[in-house]
Design brief:
By secondary structure, the chain is α/β, with parallel strands linked by helices. The protein folds into 2 domains: 270 residues, Aldolase class I (TIM Barrel); 73 residues, Arc Repressor Mutant, subunit A (Orthogonal Bundle). The chain is built from 16 helices and 14 strands. The strands form 3 sheets. It has a 9-stranded mixed sheet with strand order 7-8-6-5-4-3-2-1-9, with helices on both faces. The two termini are 42 Å apart.
């Protein structure tokens, strides 16, 4: 089992009914769907996601898995209908795991059912994660024809020894080919990078950035490697087989990424995300950061509906068994207080280029903005215009901004 743990929470009724509080103000809220595909050929050494290789699946097969997701879609239709939900889907995101280990037709069938049950607004973003070695031109065209609009490739690095440390199995030379094939199919393209891998130099990272930029994707994500307890790479560090992550070097790598991406015409819109010309952000991820609603389908998937957060059991077998028995797969839920929702909004919106309206802050928090400006963490001009937007230094210390604006003064 992967090391990630579900949060504590109260159980939902067996039929999945949400608390009555969800109904107040639910109508018209933006709504998205996340579909978790939990399969991987090999688990990467850094990965803490809810993923499984073939030997860990028990009675669940990749072939039967979409049927379980379709059952949860039917359950969500009933639960949300009872709650008075009336919004069509603005975004759909297939993540994992490796969604592209399933046939394209299976993913398209799930998307078609979501469209049939909930509706999908015109111009919606339908995005899918892919490993570079798990797709070809025909597969990508089938996705496009089935309604997918965007594909996000897990490139991670262009440097073989960095990929080896991460246990990534794809050939970096293949990435430009699949990016071009996705473009030829008419899909928007994002590439995901990871920086700060033990043994990765600043020049290694520069090489990865330059290759990513040379492919001219619509969007580039760059995430600092975080060592999660219980992962293979954490055990390697503990045994002294590889070096620990260097926080100072990671900061240099972030600054290099921001500079090179800006020079190439990419604008940051969230701490770890840049879009070409500012025109191609991930609308699904922006919806998370703007406190909208989504239903997460699949084992271990999390959902949020108007202040109620709930999450599914982790193992695909347990997930399928509950749905086959007519029960909700939800393992627990929590109803967020107004204070908790406010803290989350501050945490998330201060990560964004469009920032947090100062007016949403309590009076004592607004008084601390001057301190953040003095420390070089918040843009002074934006603050005077009524928005909290992090500077480059502030992006590196985003947690300090959020903590300063939410903690009670001592």
């Amino acid at each position: 089992m992967p090391p990630s743990q579900l949060p504590d929470g109260a159980p939902l009724p067996q039929d999945g009914a949400l608390p009555a509080s969800v109904r107040e103000g639910l109508a018209g809220r933006q709504f998205g769907a996340y579909v978790h595909i939990p399969f991987c050929r090999v688990r990467c050494g850094y990965c803490d996601f809810n993923t499984y290789t073939a030997t860990e699946l028990g009675s669940v097969s990749q072939e039967s898995y979409p049927d379980a997701v379709l059952k949860e879609i039917a359950l969500a239709d009933r639960v949300l209908g009872d709650a008075g939900h009336d919004s069509a889907l603005s975004t759909v995101f297939f993540g994992g795991g490796t969604p592209t280990l399933l046939p394209a037709a299976a993913l398209v069938d799930v998307l078609a059912r979501l469209r049939e049950i909930f509706g999908i607004v015109e111009g919606a973003e339908v995005s899918l994660e892919a490993n570079p070695d798990s797709v070809d031109a025909d597969y990508l065209r089938e996705l496009k024809d089935g309604g997918v609009t965007r594909v996000s490739f897990g490139m991670q690095s262009a440097v073989p020894h960095v990929l080896a440390t991460l246990d990534r199995t794809h050939d970096p030379a293949r990435v430009p080919d699949v990016v071009q094939a996705a473009k030829d199919a008419g899909l928007e393209v994002s590439v995901d990078l990871i920086y700060g891998t033990p043994g990765e130099s600043l020049e290694d990272w520069r090489a990865s950035l330059k290759q990513a930029i040379s492919m001219a994707p619509n969007h580039i994500s760059a995430y600092a490697l975080i060592i999660e307890p219980g992962t293979a790479i954490a055990r390697q560090i503990r045994r002294g087989e590889i070096a620990e992550v260097d926080d100072d070097l990671q900061a240099e790598m972030y600054e290099l990424a921001d500079r090179l991406l800006a020079e190439a015409g990419y604008e940051w819109y969230e701490l770890s995300n840049w879009s070409k010309g500012g025109a191609h952000p991930s609308r699904h991820n922006l919806a998370y950061w703007h406190d909208t609603d989504w239903w997460g389908f699949g084992p271990g998937a999390h959902s949020h509906v108007n202040g109620v957060r709930f999450w599914n059991v982790k193992h695909p077998a347990a997930y399928a068994n509950r749905l086959n028995g007519g029960e909700t797969p939800a393992a627990g839920h929590e109803v967020l207080s107004s204070e908790e929702r406010h803290e989350e909004i501050v945490l998330l919106r201060t990560r964004l280029r469009d920032g947090l309206p100062t007016a949403t802050l309590a009076a004592n928090a607004r008084e601390r903005v001057a301190e953040l400006i003095a420390d070089g963490l918040v843009d002074a001009g934006a603050a005077f215009r009524g928005r909290i937007i992090p500077t480059l230094r502030g992006r590196l210390l985003a947690d300090v901004i959020a903590r300063t604006l939410t903690e009670d003064p001592q």
